Amino acid sequence: MTTTLATDRQDERLQSREGLRGAITDVIERARGGDLGVIPVVVGLVVIWAVLQVLNPVFLSSTNLVNLTLESAAVGVIALGIVCVLLVGEIDLSVGSVSGLSGAVLAVLFVDKGLPVWAAILAAVALSAAIGWVYAQLFNRFGVPSFVITLAGLLAFLGLQLYVLGTKGSINLPFDSALVNFAQLAFVPQWLSYTFAVVAAAGLFASGHLHARERRRAGLSARTTSMLAVRSIALLAVLTFVVWYLGQTRGVGWMFVLFVAMVLVMHYLLSRTKWGRSVYAVGGNVEAARRAGINVRAVYTSVFMLCSSFAAVGGILAAARLAAANQSSGAGDVNLNAIAAAVIGGTSLFGGRGTAFGALLGMIVIQSISSGLTLLNLDSSIRFVVTGVVLLLAVVVDSIARKSRTSHGRA
Amino acid sequence: MSATQQKDSVLSLRGINKTFGAVAALTDIDLDVAAGQVVAVVGDNGAGKSTLVKVLSGVHSPDSGTITFDSKTVDIPSPAAAHRLGIATVFQDLALCENLNVIQNLFLGQELRPLRLNEVAMETRSWELLRQLSAKIPSVRVPVASLSGGQRQTVAIARSLLGDPKIIILDEPTAALGVAQTAEVLNLVERLRENGLGVIMISHNMADVKAVADTVAVLRLGRNNGVFDVNDVSVEDIIAAITGATDNVVSQRRARRKEGLS
Description:
The complex is a heterodimer of chains A (411) and B (262).
Chain A: H1 19-32, H2 39-55, H3 62-87, H4 95-112, H5 117-142, H6 146-165, E1 170-172, H7 178-184, H8 190-217, H9 225-246, H10 254-272, H11 274-284, H12 286-291, H13 296-322, E2 324-326, H14 334-344, H15 356-375, H16 380-407
Antiparallel strand pairs in A: 1-2
Helix pairs in contact in A: 2-15, 3-10, 3-13, 3-14, 3-15, 4-5, 4-6, 4-13, 5-13, 7-13, 8-9, 10-11, 10-15, 11-13, 14-15, 14-16, 15-16
Chain B: H1 2-7, E1 9-20, E2 23-34, E3 38-43, H2 49-56, E4 64-69, E5 72-74, H3 79-85, E6 87-90, H4 102-106, H5 119-132, H6 149-160, E7 167-171, H7 179-194, E8 198-202, H8 206-212, E9 215-220, E10 223-229, H9 235-243, H10 249-261
Parallel strand pairs in B: 3-8, 3-9, 6-7, 7-8
Antiparallel strand pairs in B: 1-2, 1-4, 4-5, 9-10
């Protein structure tokens, strides 16, 4: 034992693990204890990609992967909202309908009424935020279970969507509009993509380094600079490879960048702000959160409004991608895919556990399945079955991990 | 002595009533706590101790009665309001979030730098508080789910000290603790008193009450049943007040044992 031990390392029962090998041992130990993190989803992704690549060599081609990233953005944004509601231990089943409704509102205001596109987007998002507010009031004031409220919302807002679209049933967005252009044709120039990758890696290193320095000054243990460097270089390598590979054809779409940016913002809000803490607290133990002075109702309200707003943004992106809003926008498997993406990404259905990055990873899994099965010329019946099975597997993994956490005293 | 207590009491309750449906949980409760005074509130199961704690901590609002804090009449409509006044509570069920780690639980609801959490300052302060309590917690970065009952109690008590409160309410603080930790908590209670805080301690343990309390307030079936100076009262008298009679199964048993011994 050295003489100057960090404040948080003084207990003799603590095993100290240093360096890269120590970090790996930690991860293995935690996984054994049921704290799986992103391991299942990454393993699942590798398996799914391998199988689909064997079945159809086009699957891992640059063209298809570019398509996959673009297709994943819309539902991925919706899944991000679902992560937030699941974190407080509630559910929103109406995100599909709300996304469809907001697509319809956007189309009507933009095309039929001739409003500027930003005004139409703002109106659609505001309407959806209001829907989330109504859900939260029903939940807070009357204590109706959220799945009942939002199940009613699912039907009601599907009805409203059909009403807004009127007898035509479908409204096309002009191809030369900025919105459609953004969703279909806007790609990041290759040099800028590489810059993003470098900035991300440098940012990770810088924030980690500053944090470590602050911790050392306060007399706490901290990650070593070499560990931080390894982590940043790994990220840089992965991102550069992705950018290079996607750059073989069209490159990285701006819509996907928008999705990733939203994930990063949500990650920050959830992990580094007081609001995020209170979301996890409410999901872990509502009564404890209330007694700690957290305004639980406000947390629920913010989360429901956020989820509906994300659903609206997702609906707008979907409409832009399709260049149309129609009666089937947001119908079918959108709801389930968004929820499945969140759960596959490691968000617990029991509340209090999950990350924003889960939505990104989970969405890529869901979209891979969907895209791979489409490439195989299998119709939606089989796609539904396979997606259902994968969702079930994810929930089973979640439940097993939960049991393991309990028996290892981690839950 | 009681006259001076009345004068500089930080917290006074007068005529507090609280009913749940047909059940009168609290009837006409009076209670005074002065700065630097430890008041033990004792009573049998269902005597209204926990309800009283919840009224003071803003979880339940009283149906009638007045609460005076710092010689001002106040309402405590919410736990946040209790925090602001300077009333901190350690609940019997501890009210910790099992999915959050020790630091996150300690600072829950009062995080430093809301928009960019100051993790380092919070961790340093957490260690200070825990060291002050001589806590045996190996790491503050583990979820509370992995701590033992005694460790959780320590976390809960440490949390109550964060907001520099004037009154601390401890709901059965030693019920789940080992011998050494009980002594630590009792030491801590005395330290709180030396620092001029008012302490309300709910307890079933007469030894703890005799050891640290200045005053014992007895509740019985939701009513005041006597306030005693701890130096002038025997454990038998307290138990008599708790059970509501001098002739009861407890005192009979004690009498029998005394006879048997002599």
